[in-house]
Amino acid sequence: MSHTILLIQPGTKPETRTYSDYESVNDCMEGVCKIYEEHLKKLNPKSVSITYDITQLFEFVDHLADLSCLVYQKSTMTYAPYNKDWIKEKIYVLLRCQANQRQ
Description:
Strand content: 15-25%
């Protein structure tokens, strides 16, 4: 469990910057998925259910102006920065584990 701060800038304007904090990296990755799901709900307000695949999620991540994480490192008592590629890798691992648990 490493405290994780998600930094997100959806648009090109600095005013679109925001952050969220989570108790763990996995919670943060679930938060990124929820952000995408909210985005899909805004695009499809009349849809009862929304489905997507990981490729679409990754395209969304790639199109954000900025997305990064700061993960607390207990050994140095500092936060280490991680980029979009790291985030996508962690999301992939999380979703793969969730899919394996459902089988």
